[in-house]
Design brief:
111 residues; alpha+beta; five-stranded antiparallel sheet; 3 helices; 42% helix
Length: 111
Protein backbone atom coordinates (compact mmCIF):
# COMPACT_ATOMS: atom_id res chain seq x y z
CA UNK A 1 0.00 0.00 0.00
CA UNK A 2 1.47 3.36 -0.99
CA UNK A 3 1.43 6.45 1.23
CA UNK A 4 -1.51 8.15 -0.52
CA UNK A 5 -3.62 5.02 -0.27
CA UNK A 6 -2.68 4.63 3.40
CA UNK A 7 -3.67 8.25 4.16
CA UNK A 8 -6.95 7.73 2.31
CA UNK A 9 -7.75 4.61 4.38
CA UNK A 10 -6.82 6.38 7.62
CA UNK A 11 -9.07 9.32 6.72
CA UNK A 12 -12.00 6.98 6.09
CA UNK A 13 -11.41 5.23 9.42
CA UNK A 14 -11.26 8.57 11.23
CA UNK A 15 -14.53 9.73 9.65
CA UNK A 16 -16.29 6.43 10.36
CA UNK A 17 -15.18 6.51 14.00
CA UNK A 18 -16.93 9.83 14.66
CA UNK A 19 -19.96 9.65 16.92
CA UNK A 20 -23.21 9.40 14.95
CA UNK A 21 -21.73 8.43 11.58
CA UNK A 22 -23.98 5.90 9.86
CA UNK A 23 -21.95 5.40 6.72
CA UNK A 24 -19.27 6.73 4.40
CA UNK A 25 -19.44 6.47 0.61
CA UNK A 26 -16.62 7.41 -1.75
CA UNK A 27 -17.25 7.77 -5.48
CA UNK A 28 -15.11 9.03 -8.32
CA UNK A 29 -16.16 12.11 -10.27
CA UNK A 30 -18.14 9.91 -12.68
CA UNK A 31 -20.21 8.58 -9.77
CA UNK A 32 -18.60 5.13 -9.80
CA UNK A 33 -18.40 3.58 -6.35
CA UNK A 34 -14.85 3.38 -4.96
CA UNK A 35 -15.65 2.20 -1.45
CA UNK A 36 -18.44 2.31 1.09
CA UNK A 37 -19.31 1.17 4.57
CA UNK A 38 -22.93 0.62 3.47
CA UNK A 39 -24.31 -2.27 1.43
CA UNK A 40 -23.82 -2.00 -2.33
CA UNK A 41 -27.45 -1.24 -3.21
CA UNK A 42 -27.74 1.58 -0.65
CA UNK A 43 -24.36 2.95 -1.67
CA UNK A 44 -25.24 3.11 -5.36
CA UNK A 45 -28.68 4.62 -4.68
CA UNK A 46 -27.31 7.30 -2.36
CA UNK A 47 -24.41 8.08 -4.70
CA UNK A 48 -26.65 8.51 -7.76
CA UNK A 49 -28.98 10.95 -6.01
CA UNK A 50 -26.24 12.89 -4.26
CA UNK A 51 -24.09 13.19 -7.40
CA UNK A 52 -26.95 14.99 -9.18
CA UNK A 53 -27.46 17.30 -6.24
CA UNK A 54 -23.72 17.98 -5.86
CA UNK A 55 -23.41 18.82 -9.56
CA UNK A 56 -26.25 21.32 -9.23
CA UNK A 57 -24.70 22.81 -6.09
CA UNK A 58 -21.32 23.17 -7.85
CA UNK A 59 -23.02 25.00 -10.71
CA UNK A 60 -24.91 27.23 -8.31
CA UNK A 61 -21.71 28.25 -6.51
CA UNK A 62 -19.96 28.93 -9.85
CA UNK A 63 -22.91 31.05 -11.01
CA UNK A 64 -22.67 33.15 -7.85
CA UNK A 65 -18.93 33.63 -8.20
CA UNK A 66 -16.97 32.04 -11.08
CA UNK A 67 -13.75 32.19 -9.04
CA UNK A 68 -15.28 30.15 -6.20
CA UNK A 69 -15.93 26.42 -5.83
CA UNK A 70 -18.04 24.13 -3.66
CA UNK A 71 -16.08 22.67 -0.76
CA UNK A 72 -18.81 21.04 1.35
CA UNK A 73 -22.52 20.53 0.88
CA UNK A 74 -24.47 19.82 4.05
CA UNK A 75 -28.12 18.80 4.16
CA UNK A 76 -30.25 17.88 7.11
CA UNK A 77 -33.55 16.22 7.86
CA UNK A 78 -35.18 15.58 11.22
CA UNK A 79 -33.19 12.37 11.72
CA UNK A 80 -30.11 12.55 9.50
CA UNK A 81 -27.51 14.79 7.97
CA UNK A 82 -25.65 14.26 4.73
CA UNK A 83 -22.26 15.86 4.14
CA UNK A 84 -20.79 15.89 0.65
CA UNK A 85 -17.16 16.89 0.12
CA UNK A 86 -16.11 17.00 -3.53
CA UNK A 87 -12.41 16.62 -4.17
CA UNK A 88 -10.26 16.70 -7.26
CA UNK A 89 -10.57 12.98 -8.03
CA UNK A 90 -13.36 11.73 -5.78
CA UNK A 91 -16.33 12.73 -3.64
CA UNK A 92 -16.80 11.72 -0.01
CA UNK A 93 -20.38 11.33 1.21
CA UNK A 94 -21.02 11.01 4.94
CA UNK A 95 -24.37 9.98 6.37
CA UNK A 96 -24.80 10.72 10.05
CA UNK A 97 -27.45 10.83 12.73
CA UNK A 98 -28.83 14.26 13.46
CA UNK A 99 -26.85 15.63 16.38
CA UNK A 100 -28.93 17.32 19.06
CA UNK A 101 -26.44 20.21 19.05
CA UNK A 102 -26.37 20.47 15.28
CA UNK A 103 -26.83 23.86 13.66
CA UNK A 104 -29.07 22.08 11.13
CA UNK A 105 -31.46 21.06 13.89
CA UNK A 106 -31.47 24.57 15.36
CA UNK A 107 -32.36 26.04 11.96
CA UNK A 108 -35.07 23.43 11.30
CA UNK A 109 -36.65 24.00 14.72
CA UNK A 110 -36.82 27.74 14.09
CA UNK A 111 -38.89 27.37 10.91
Amino acid sequence: MNNVQHEFEETLKRIQSQNGVIGVIVVNNNGDLITSTLDNRSSVNHAEMIMKLADNAKGFVRNLDPSNELTVLRMGSKRREVLVAPGKDFIIIVLQKQNHKSIMKIIANSL
